[in-house]
UniProtKB/TrEMBL annotation:
Highest rank taxon of the organism: Bacteria
InterPro entries recorded: KH_dom-like_a/b, OsmC/Ohr_fam, OsmC/Ohrsf, OsmC_Ohr_Peroxiredoxin, Peroxiredoxin_OsmC
Gene3D superfamilies on file: 3.30.300.20
Protein name: OsmC family peroxiredoxin
Pfam families: OsmC
Transmembrane segments: none
């Protein structure tokens, strides 16, 4: 089974003064303003590709981790995951890293198993695989 998801962007103007809108076409959940400034400076009124990647990565990791925990016989009560994607213009524009943070409520799991399964989910998550070549770090805590 394969499912394609679609988003689109309309951009007007040059890179530095221009702006655009990104639309979540598959879900119809919204249209978001995007600018270069939102990638390189504080601009909380607009989004950027890195925030969209962060949302995808936090979601994907949570799904993968939940599945790995369930297969271990220790399904999570709750996973709170964030992803921080760092964009740098030094040495050419690029994503320089991703840091995942998860706080998990799980009954009956050892710290050792928890960390091992969290690391496996980080490596096995499809978004992590798509970001191969980017350093991905993880802080995982049982709460």
């Amino acid at each position: 089974m394969a499912l394609s998801s679609k988003a689109s962007t309309t951009w007007k103007g040059n890179l530095f003064q221009g702006s655009g809108t990104t639309t979540m076409d598959s879900s119809g959940l919204g249209t978001f303003d995007v600018t270069w400034k939102a990638r390189t400076e504080e601009d909380r009124a607009r989004t950027n590709p890195e925030e969209l990647i962060a949302a995808a990565h936090a979601t994907c990791f949570s799904m993968a981790f939940s599945n790995e925990l369930d297969q271990n016989g220790t399904p999570p009560t709750q996973l709170d995951t964030s992803a921080e994607v760092t964009f740098s213009t030094e040495g050419g524009a690029h994503i320089s890293g991703v840091h995942l943070t998860v706080n998990a409520q799980i009954e009956g799991i050892s710290e050792e198993d928890f960390q091992r399964i969290a690391e496996a989910a980080k490596v096995g998550c499809p978004v992590s695989k798509a970001l191969a070549g980017t350093e991905i770090t993880l802080t995982a805590s049982l709460v």
